[in-house]
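step=encode ok
step=design start
structure_in=
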């Protein structure tokens, strides 16, 4: 109409417009963010649980990690289809079977994933917290010599340590410890893909899959650890940042500095929250130089501590 009328209208319209936009943004965020997402707070962890978790972290043993990696690299090659691959599955089945409280199975038919279950104490909960690592190895230049100490004997050793330590406690939710075959190829599908597909088909309630791969090479003692998450698992990165300082683990954490394929992606593909932690550099992976002398057991221990702290919190001590 005239200049005055326009000014009155815009003075009135602007706040309404801002409020409407804010309301739409909030509504969009509520729709996008899954209920478990969001930065955690220290107050969410009862002090008694913090002390129990800290005690568990202190039980992760570098000598155990060293011995497991040594036994695995001693099999010459764990390449899918090599004799050492089958021997590794039997060795790992035996190691997990010797831990009280776990039930152990081969899963996935010929692919022979090895999966151990620590049943939750709350029979009305179907929630599963899961941790895993692939046990096969690869050396394209010489498949018969693939010691795979850092890739991925170290990750397997961490999972075995978490199984040993966590099985001495009782949790509300079920925890599964998975050792995957054929991550580095050789089969029609990777072991984790076979599992994650079945989990989705059966509508399993997996709260988190935590992957250990490339988890122990730190030649210069930098203690830099990358946390690889997607939108569905951003909350786990937040939790790891918090726990890294709460439990004085001492990593310098980076977020999504790496972007490589490993078993966590099989879970992403099925819509499950999954996270992988990753060392700073790959160097000896997939070569005959990937031997036990490249493994930092201190780095592996700290990596395992960070993972255990998250799993124990999510699984909820009984
Ligand atoms: Zn690997």
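sequence_out=
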């Amino acid at each position: 109409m005239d200049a005055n009328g326009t000014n009155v209208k815009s003075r009135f319209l602007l706040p309404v417009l801002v409020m409407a936009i804010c309301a739409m943004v909030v509504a969009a965020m509520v729709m996008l963010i899954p209920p478990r997402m969001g930065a955690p707070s220290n107050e969410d962890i009862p002090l008694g649980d913090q002390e129990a978790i800290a005690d568990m972290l202190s039980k992760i043993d570098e000598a155990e990690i060293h011995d497991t990696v040594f036994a695995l690299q001693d099999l010459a090659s764990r390449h899918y289809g090599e004799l050492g691959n089958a021997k590794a599955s039997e060795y790992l089945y035996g190691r997990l079977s010797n831990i009280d409280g776990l039930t152990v199975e081969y899963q996935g038919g010929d692919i022979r994933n090895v999966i151990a279950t620590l049943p939750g104490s709350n029979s009305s909960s179907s929630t599963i917290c899961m941790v895993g690592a692939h046990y096969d190895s690869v050396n394209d230049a010489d498949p018969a010599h693939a010691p795979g100490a850092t890739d991925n004997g170290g990750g397997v050793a961490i999972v075995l340590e978490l199984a040993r330590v966590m099985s001495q406690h009782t949790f509300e939710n079920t925890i599964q410890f998975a050792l995957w075959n054929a991550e580095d190829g050789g089969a029609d599908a990777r072991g984790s893909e076979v599992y994650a597909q079945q989990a989705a088909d059966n509508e399993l309630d997996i709260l988190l899959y935590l992957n250990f791969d490339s988890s122990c090479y730190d030649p210069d003692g930098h203690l830099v650890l990358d946390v690889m998450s997607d939108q569905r698992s951003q909350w786990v990165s937040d939790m790891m940042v918090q726990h890294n300082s709460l439990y004085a683990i001492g990593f310098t954490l980076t977020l999504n500095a790496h972007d490589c394929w490993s078993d966590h992606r099989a879970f992403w593909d099925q819509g499950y929250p999954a996270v992988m932690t990753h060392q700073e550099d790959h160097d000896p992976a997939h070569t005959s130089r990937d031997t036990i002398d490249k493994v930092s057991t201190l780095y592996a221990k700290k990596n395992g501590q960070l993972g255990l702290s998250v799993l124990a919190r999510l699984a909820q001590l009984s």
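step=design ok
step=annotate ok -> The pocket of zinc ion is lined by residues 134, 151-152, 183, 213-214, 262 (CB under 6 Å).
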